[in-house]
Specification:
The complex is a heterodimer of chains A (304) and B (846). With 304 residues, chain A is of the alpha/beta class. In chain A, 31% of the residues lie in helices and 21% in strands. Chain A starts with 37 loop residues before the first strand and ends in a 21-residue tail after the last helix. Helices cover 57% and strands 15% of the residues of chain B. In chain B, α7 (243-290) runs parallel beside α11 (378-385). The chains are: A alpha/beta (304), B alpha+beta (846). Chain B: One of its GO terms (cellular component) is plasma membrane.
Chain lengths: 304, 846
């Protein structure tokens, strides 16, 4: 990773917008720890389902960090734990062990209300199945986070909204309902909604999974645009090497561990890494996704 | 959030309307109850007011301690404008067309003290003049200027002496509006003061119970009241109150019953609301389950649990308010309709012309409707908050997992068992002397506990029963039956709560029917003994024409003419005067059901009021009487003796009174026959000098009793029927939700070759299964409750035992038929939506 994220002067630095009431960072993660520059960071993350013989380690001690103003893809086969990692990082699910830091905020200690407020203000989501409210227009869907927060559309927000709508090419579609939009348009509305609050990080879960390749490419292009031009941070889960190539960095997950880290990925490199992981997994039966303990041929990588 | 809630409501408007109807029915029910009872109270108040005119003050004495001197004293008080006494003389007015008893009073000295309004002619002034209500004049066929007979029947102090009847001619000089004759149930007429004085003297009355007075304009009514009180406070029984207060007191004394009636109906309304609550809870749970994805998304983008909960509650609140208001309007409309019909049918009813609305009429249904809705939706609101934000990430529709409630059915069974034990305990207790009230309370408590238990345990009964029925139905073959059978148990929780609403309604209807059937059976066997004589016509020298006319009446089977007289009777314990009937042992059995088959002509028969067991009876003047062996016979008229001609000769009985006892054919309608007999009597006696013969007897009373019971039952079943209707709305609701959920599945079935007719049939059978399960469980419960309730209420007094229990098959079959029909009916609308989905929808993505 050589590129310094371009932070436009119009975009405030995310850390300055830490909401009141959110506990401060633990002393261990304060400056000058270089990891604090990360938008979101997982430390020693474990997620275990079941107990005894039926125990499944979905995540088995993951340390990972994602840089601010970066577009990162999390890659892996089905059952590798990539989705679980995303859920933990986004505060949607609780870890069995380990910590998640969003900027200066440690998530695992937050209660439901604090997590909800954090999701409302500091995290954005883009889903595989779009998840728009069918009874709302595109504009109402985009403004939904404000509606939930009960806050007014200030001139500042309106300007940002206009910029998002223009960037995502939704100007003519604002009064349409989701059923009147194509899949790609719906996903663009979802991206606009995710970016409306200028979150610390946007999590995208297979955002192109339900789209044809052209719409998919369009959506990925917009995600990259939102990072490059709007200064946002995006973490995207995908199993598609083509999609991963839009990212600045690809983190590979296998058997509940970080299994590789590729900067400026191309489809070919990513595909080669995925093939290598698959072969390693097949060669070592003990490391099947369900029970993986000692696998991890590649050391876990601390970003930057 | 308001906009979001509103948008979600608009999306589910169909379902919400269905639940809204359930709420509206319940609140409409409550409103109609209030409107009706208010109308009755207003009517009573209006009648009470018109019974005294519009006085400023009313002086009343329950001991009839007011005298003419009091009237004069009051009239002399400063500030008193006019005083009116309530003479209240009862006299019979007779014409060739008939006769009628009226209450006579003097014309008011002050129009505000009058209780009737003059419509035509003038008020009576001189002796021999009278003014009658228009309806009475019409009935008796007299016009202004005609003369009518005024009959005085004066009883002397000597009880054994015959009353003296005198007839005088009076002239009709005025026609009055129909007064209410409140409190006497008789029409009000006016007569000249001089005549009234004379009649009161004849009757031996010199005092009054009521004086009304008006005050001078501008006088201080309170001050005058004090002066009046001082003037008349001769006894404790005398009170002085304002006219308005008097009217309210009188009305209240007549409407005490209406409060109990209102409480009773509101109890039924509560049942209807409870059933509506179950339907609401069910529907909202399903709504929340369907919105899982949306709720998860909202949680993801920052909606707090509180916001989600508030949104569901707000939805329930809006629904509750809208539906309750609709229900209130329906209730008011029905009340207005009823009033309009009453006014159109009956002229001059003092009932209000528009529905009387007070605060309670609006607030009680509104609050209960809103509270029930919001509370019932509370579970769904909690459920909605349990949706994890993570659910938005899952590609397939996540199902809301309700908290496992394994404890609930166990607790339910414990409560059911405990409640039943309490009821059985109450039954045992009721056999112990003097504990009836306690036993009743324990029994009711047991019933309430067990019904709560059954509702909680329903999840373990209903799906099992539905499965059993379904398997039976599926065996009949055919895709629709098999599909319906499996569909009906796919969502056990929903099936259960749908059926639960029906269980409660059906159980209550069945309970009332069973209890009433038992009461009726018991009553009939008792009535047979008590009213052993079907019809009796008693009077002086019944003419052969009258007897022939009666014998010719349709439904009259046998008649026996008995001579009657008054006689002094002395039994082992007391002495009194009784009516003695002279009968022939050979024929009396044909008209007296309880007549002994082997009547020894030397003995006399006596009724239960005279002797409590067979024993000696002395007949004739006290001290000189002759002793006979008395035989106790139930069913004889009260205080009566029956003797043979042989004994009558010994006693030298004299008397011109006769009684014709009539036995009706078994298949005759007692009311019609009695009416025909009454007509025959009045047709053949009108215009004669003789007093009108009295028509009485057990057949009418017997029919009256059973009719009252049947009417009450019909009303109660009708009221509880509202709960059943609400429950059936729940069935339709559940079916339509199933249709929505199985849109693609149904389309797939259609694509695979299921015809529209078969799809409709599938839903109809599913509806029938749902309704039948609810009806069957409800029937069983209702039978048990009805039996226990019947034994508890009737057992101690009648000795009814478990062996005498029976199943009211008519009611049971009717309930089952209604359930099946309703199940089919409930499937009609959902089926219309289902068959409209094209088979190709199975292939389309969501």
């Amino acid at each position: 990773m050589s590129q310094t994220p371009p932070v436009p002067s119009t975009v405030p630095t995310p850390t300055t917008r830490t909401p009141a009431g959110v506990p401060g960072p633990p002393p261990a993660s304060s400056h000058p720890d270089p990891a604090a520059a990360a938008a979101v960071r997982g430390v020693g993350l474990r997620k275990t389902y079941g107990r005894g013989d039926a125990q499944v380690h979905a995540l088995d001690g993951v340390d990972v960090a994602f840089g601010r103003g970066q577009f990162t893809a999390i890659m892996g086969a089905s059952g590798s734990g990539k989705s679980t990692l995303l859920h933990l990082l986004a505060g949607l699910d609780s870890a069995t062990a380990g910590q998640v830091h969003l900027g200066d905020t440690e998530l695992t200690s937050l209660d439901d209300n604090a997590l909800t407020e954090l999701r409302r203000k500091r995290v954005g989501f883009v889903f595989q199945s779009f998840n728009l409210l069918p009874m709302f227009t595109a504009e109402q869907n985009i403004l939904l986070p404000l509606e939930l927060a009960g806050s007014k559309v200030t001139p500042d927000v309106r300007a940002w909204f206009d910029r998002l709508v223009t960037t995502l090419g939704l100007r003519d579609r604002l009064t349409h309902r989701p059923s009147e939009l194509s899949g790609g348009q719906q996903q663009r509305v979802a991206i606009a909604r995710a970016l409306l609050t200028r979150p610390d990080v946007v999590f995208a879960d297979e955002p192109t999974g339900n789209l044809d390749s052209r719409s998919g490419a369009e959506v990925l292009e917009f995600l990259r645009t939102s990072v490059r031009e709007l200064g946002q941070t995006v973490v995207m889960v995908t199993h598609d090497a083509q999609a991963a190539a839009y990212a600045d960095r690809a983190v590979l997950v296998a058997d509940g561990r970080i299994a590789g880290d590729v900067a400026d990925p191309t489809p070919e490199v990513v595909q080669a890494e995925l093939d290598r992981l698959r072969t390693a997994s097949l060669a070592s039966p003990a490391s099947t996704p369900a029970r993986g303990v000692a696998a991890g041929s590649t050391p876990a990588v601390e970003a930057r | 959030m308001w906009r979001l809630t509103w948008a979600q409501m608009r999306r589910n408007v169909g379902k919400l309307i269905a639940v809204g109807i359930a709420i509206a029915l319940g609140t409409g029910f409550i409103t109609a109850t209030f409107v009706t009872t208010n109308a009755v109270e207003d009517t009573a108040l209006a009648a009470a007011r018109s019974s005294v005119g519009d006085p400023d003050l009313v002086v009343s004495s329950s001991a009839y301690a007011l005298e003419d001197s009091d009237r004069d004293a009051l009239a002399a008080i400063d500030g008193v404008a006019a005083v009116q006494v309530a003479a209240n003389v009862f006299r019979e007015i007779a014409t060739p067309q008939g006769q009628e008893v009226l209450v006579l009073n003097a014309p008011a000295t002050d129009p505000r003290l009058g209780t009737t309004t003059l419509l035509e002619g003038r008020e009576p002034e001189a002796a021999g003049e009278i003014a009658l209500p228009t309806s009475t004049a019409d009935r008796l066929g007299v016009a202004l200027g005609d003369s009518v007979d005024l009959v005085s029947t004066v009883y002397s102090d000597d009880a054994s002496a015959e009353p003296t009847r005198t007839v005088e001619q009076v002239t009709l000089v005025g026609l009055l509006s129909d007064g209410t004759g409140f409190g006497f149930g008789l029409p009000s007429a006016l007569a000249a003061p001089a005549d009234l004085e004379g009649w009161r003297a004849d009757d031996g009355n010199s005092t009054y119970s009521l004086l009304t007075l008006t005050t001078d304009d501008g006088a201080d009514v309170a001050a005058v009241g004090d002066a009046v009180t001082a003037a008349v406070a001769s006894t404790d029984s005398t009170t002085v109150i304002t006219g308005e207060q008097y009217a309210r007191d009188v009305a209240a004394s007549f409407t005490d019953g209406i409060q109990i009636f209102r409480a009773l109906i509101l109890a039924f309304a509560a049942v209807a609301m409870a059933v509506a609550g179950i339907v609401i809870a069910n529907t909202f749970t399903v709504l929340v389950a369907q919105r899982t994805r949306t709720l998860a998304l909202l949680r993801c983008v920052g909606a707090t649990k509180t916001q989600i909960r508030r949104s569901v509650r707000l939805e329930a609140l809006v629904l509750g308010v809208v539906a309750s208001v609709a229900g209130i309007l329906i209730g008011l409309g029905l009340g207005q309709l009823a009033l309009s019909i009453i006014h159109a049918r009956v002229e001059g009813v003092p009932a209000p012309t528009t529905v009387p609305v007070d605060l309670a009429t609006i607030l009680v249904p509104l609050l209960s409707g809103v509270v029930v809705t919001v509370v019932a939706a509370g579970g769904a609101a909690r459920l909605a908050t349990s949706v994890a934000p993570l659910a938005a990430m899952r590609p397939v529709d996540a199902v809301v997992s309700e908290r496992s409630r394994r404890l609930r059915p166990i607790l339910g069974w414990i409560l059911t068992g405990g409640g039943l034990a309490l009821m059985v305990g109450a039954l045992v207790m009721s056999r112990v002397e003097g504990t009836f009230e306690v036993a009743l309370a324990v029994g009711v408590l047991g019933g309430l506990i067990s019904i709560v238990g059954v509702v909680m345990a329903a999840i373990t009964i209903v799906p099992a029963l539905a499965g059993l029925l379904g398997r039976g139905v599926a065996r009949l073959g055919g895709a629709p039956l098999t599909l319906a059978a499996t569909n009906s148990v796919r969502n056990p929780r929903r099936t259960t709560s749908t059926a639960t609403a029906l269980i409660v309604g059906v159980a209550l209807v069945t309970m009332m029917s069973t209890g009433a059937a038992m009461a009726r059976e018991q009553l009939e066997s008792e009535l047979d003994a008590q009213f052993a004589i079907d019809v009796a016509v008693g009077g002086e020298n019944l003419s052969p024409a009258t007897i022939d006319a009666i014998t010719a009446v349709d439904g009259v089977q046998d008649t026996v003419l008995l001579r009657t007289a008054q006689i002094d009777v002395e039994t082992a314990s007391f002495a009194t005067t009784a009516t003695v009937y002279v009968a022939d042992p050979a024929t009396i059995g044909s008209v007296l059901a309880t007549a002994p088959a082997d009547w020894d002509p030397s003995t006399v028969l006596a009724d239960g009021y005279l002797i409590s067991q067979d024993g000696p009876v002395t007949l004739g003047t006290v001290g000189e009487g002759e002793e006979f062996d008395g035989v106790l016979v139930e069913g004889l008229p009260d205080y009566s003796i029956m003797v043979t001609e042989q004994v009558a000769d010994e006693l030298e009985l004299v008397g011109s009174q006769e009684s014709l006892w009539i036995a009706l054919a078994d298949d005759a309608d007692p009311v019609d026959a009695a009416d025909a007999i009454r007509d025959a009597v009045s047709d053949t006696t009108a215009g004669t000098d003789a007093a009108a013969p009295q028509v009485g007897g057990g057949a009418i009373e017997k029919a009256g009793f059973t009719q009252v019971l049947d009417t009450l039952l019909a009303v109660v079943v009708g009221l509880l029927g509202v709960a059943v209707v609400i429950a059936l709305i729940g069935v339709a609701n559940t079916l339509s939700l199933s249709v929505v959920e199985r849109r693609r599945e149904n389309a797939l079935l259609r694509a695979l070759g299921l015809t529209r007719r078969q799809l409709r049939a599938t839903l109809a059978v599913e509806g029938v299964l749902l309704a039948a399960v609810g009806a069957i469980v409800g029937l069983v419960l209702g039978l048990v409750y009805g039996w226990i309730g019947g034994l508890l209420l009737l057992g101690p007094t009648t000795g009814m035992t478990v062996g005498s229990l029976s199943v009211p098959w008519n009611a049971v079959l009717a309930v089952l038929a209604v359930a099946v029909a309703a199940g089919v009916l409930a499937s009609v609308l959902p089926a219309r939506g289902a068959v409209r989905v094209p088979p190709v929808a199975a292939l389309a993505a969501e």
